[in-house]
Amino acid sequence: MESSTEKAIALFLMPVAVVIDHFLGEPRKFHPLVGFGRLANRMETVTYGPPGCSAKARRIRGIAAVTGLLLPAWLISLPLAGHGAIGAAIAGAGLYLALGARSLFEHAEAVRNALLNDDLTNARRAVGRIVSRDVLTMDARQIAAATVESVLENGCDAVFGALFWYAAGGLPGVVVYRLANTLDAMWGYRNERYRDFGWAAARLDDVLNYLPARLTAMSYALCGHLPTALRAWRHQGRYWKSPNAGPVMAAGAGALGIALGGPASYHGSLTHRPALGYGRPAEMRDIGRAISLVRRSLTLWLWTAVIGGVALA
């Protein structure tokens, strides 16, 4: 059982990990998530099953794949998260590896820079790295809106979700969260291949992100236009296809005073998505505003961690 001093140290390590991510970013070589992705691909090959599998059998295979990947990772992380300075350092390093704030901002800024130069070709290429929709026919406004949506949504996945589960569960918590989030990104699609096999990954990600998403939405509201953010969250967030992305993106759009959502093309098919936020359509300058909103929210979280650490010390 952790002492109050150890809990305080864990909270103090949150800003340290964020600062390291700010200056170093993700490791360019030998990132654990890259290796985990390769392992997940092998697991999929082994467990996916033959073409004739029923939906139920495919879903069971997906559950087995998720369990077979996450349970060993959780068990390995338990003894690593030991007591004392070494355990704290390992947990802090794990949090740093789970964070993706700098990477998220760099990808968004690459889109913004291409749009500033009226380079739609590179802007489409850059936005294609952070969204799964069709980008080849996007105009500048659509590219900007897609980028803003990605920044707001991934603020939860790449930043606040990792911080929440580190604070709540230490190294095992942040490890399971980040790996489950990676599996959702790989398998959590509602297409023919992954509708059943990826069911477990998608549902687990929904469960793990339920609280972080709502804390993220509240952070966006507090750091932006509060009344509009709360109104958008309340009236629009629940209609989005994802139970967690909806509140986050609705609150973010409301906080920025812009409109997001609407039609978008995925895999050659036009999808009619609900409207999010109120005001004018998102445009290029809103990419920087979305990044600033995430940064202000991150500052709020870190000050909260520091104050909590002081209270426990």
UniProtKB/TrEMBL annotation:
Recorded family membership: Belongs to the CobD/CbiB family.
Upper taxonomic classification of the species?
Bacteria, Pseudomonadati, Pseudomonadota, Gammaproteobacteria, Methylococcales
Q: Which InterPro entries match?
A: Cobalamin_biosynth_CobD/CbiB
According to the record, the segments passing through the membrane are 62-80
Q: Which gene encodes it?
A: cbiB
Superkingdom per UniProt: Bacteria
Is-annotated flag, keyword Membrane? yes
Q: What does the function comment of this entry state? A: Converts cobyric acid to cobinamide by the addition of aminopropanol on the F carboxylic group.
Query: Membrane topology type, per the record?
Result: Multi-pass membrane protein
Task: Name the UniProt key words of this record, in alphabetical order.
Answer: Cell membrane, Cobalamin biosynthesis, Membrane, Transmembrane, Transmembrane helix
Pfam families, per the entry: CobD_Cbib
Pathway stated in the Swiss-Prot or TrEMBL entry: Cofactor biosynthesis; adenosylcobalamin biosynthesis
This one is known as: Cobalamin biosynthesis protein CobD
Subcellular location, record wording: Cell membrane
